[in-house]
Design goal:
Strand content: 25-35%
CATH topology of the domain at 34-140: Immunoglobulin-like
Largest sheet: 4 strands, antiparallel
Number of strands: 7
Mean pLDDT: 78
Order of helices and strands: HEEEEEEE
Number of helices: 1
Length: about 160
């Protein structure tokens, strides 16, 4: 059986419009009217999240950010990393041919599992990469259980 469907030439354009509306929802669009829009604003640094049996490691790619401009907070099982990459005002904006690097403030937040030990959180910033290490609580670490061959579970003696 053949099914006939109506073709809507504007369907793809409507999907793009909906996506753009979601992106700019709850954003301050007044900054779009300033001359600084081409060089400043906000950005989201790339983050790698790695887990092993002892900890979670989050690596943020933030080259050009001064260490004093980084703020790391852990509150109510939420890790928030904020910072700012400043545009060097010594250089004249009109002399730039192209500005592809993003400048301005950034913030990334992550909801953490209850297995994180809030007392054992550390951070290191080296060569443009911020690494935050979140240690797991001892009870959250995997335990290996030895299997006894030929022993009764109740008595622990050979069957």
């Amino acid at each position: 059986m053949t099914v006939i469907t109506r073709w809507n030439p504007f369907r793809d354009a409507e999907q793009i419009q909906n996506t753009l509306n979601r992106m700019f929802q709850d954003r301050d669009v007044s900054r779009f009217n300033t001359d600084e829009f081409t060089t400043t604003g906000s950005f989201l640094p790339a983050v790698d999240v790695y887990e092993d049996e002892h900890s979670y490691k989050l690596s943020f790619e933030i080259p050009g950010v001064d260490e004093k401009d980084i703020d790391i907070r852990l509150e109510n099982n939420t890790l928030t990393v904020r910072g700012e990459r400043r545009f060097e005002k010594e250089m004249k904006e009109e002399n730039f041919h192209r500005v592809e690097r993003r400048y301005g403030s950034f913030a990334r937040s992550f909801t953490l599992p209850n297995t994180i030990d809030a007392e054992k959180v550390s951070a290191e910033y080296r060569e443009g990469v911020l690494t935050v290490v979140l240690a797991k609580k001892a009870e959250a670490k995997p335990k290996q259980i030895k299997v006894g061959i030929g022993k009764s579970l109740e008595t622990g003696k050979a069957a």
